[in-house]
Design a protein that fits this description.
Elements (H helix, E strand, L loop, with lengths): L3 E6 L2 H9 L4 E4 L12 H10 L4 E4 L11 H17 L3 E4 L10 H11 L3 E4 L9 H9 L6 E4 L10 H10 L5 E4 L8 H8 L3 E4 L6
Parallel strand pairs: 1-2, 1-8, 2-3, 3-4, 4-5, 5-6, 6-7, 7-8
Helix pairs in contact: 2-3, 3-4, 5-6
Length: 207
């Protein structure tokens, strides 16, 4: 089984270098120092035309909250439509309510708007009270294709059993993308424990 190494970047230069050094996929963000925000449309367009590697774009208008107003949701839909019209591989998003659980009304609205793009729920899942309960909520939505998670911990290495359980709970077509402190130096050891297909990180490949 081929493993997919997804590299998150926030510049055209890093995207090009990641592709050159073997990234299977790119997650394009703005401001990785703030855990990733929606990148500028100019950066999205430049990266799309420069790369052959599939690109997924972070749709996140602010930091640090995942609680969004109606206006912010409308902005996210506009950004999603831009990505859709360009023909990108997918978008990465997530919304929480005041109780730090998934706001499924907002998530359902955004994921429906994004089709036919791949829709990945980002690490907002790790801020919910139960990653397992949250996974069952999103995996039952046919418009959602996967989730980016460190199993509720800061680092994937501290959540190996949870990540394995998450893999067991979903069909093979649903992407459990393990993330959180995964680098080219610890990847092989971690993969031997998790045995997943999808992995994500800033330094998951050397470039």
């Amino acid at each position: 089984m081929q493993t997919i190494k997804e590299v998150c970047v926030d510049s055209l230069e890093d995207a090009i270098n990641a592709e050159k050094n073997g990234a299977n996929r790119i997650e394009l963000c703005g401001r990785l120092d703030l855990d990733g925000l929606t990148p500028s449309r100019e950066l999205i367009k430049e990266t799309f035309y420069a790369l052959k590697t599939p690109i997924r774009v972070m749709i996140r208008p602010k930091h640090p909250s995942f609680i969004y107003s109606k206006e912010e949701i409308n902005t996210m839909i506009e950004d999603i439509n831009f990505c859709k019209n360009l023909g990108l591989d997918g978008v990465v998003l997530g919304c929480l309510d005041q109780n730090a659980n998934f706001d499924m009304i907002q998530i359902n609205k955004l994921s429906k708007a994004a089709k036919p793009l791949n829709v990945i729920i980002h690490k907002a899942i790790d801020s919910t009270s139960s990653v397992i309960d949250s996974l069952s909520l999103i995996s039952s939505n046919r418009n959602i294709n996967g989730v980016l998670t460190s199993g509720g911990e800061r680092f994937a290495i501290n959540a190996v059993e949870i990540l394995k359980k998450m893999l067991d709970l979903v069909p093979d077509s649903f992407e459990i993308i393990s993330a959180g402190g995964i680098t080219y130096e610890n990847f092989d050891k971690l993969h031997s424990q998790i045995e997943g297909k999808y992995y994500h990180g800033k330094k998951i490949i050397k470039f």
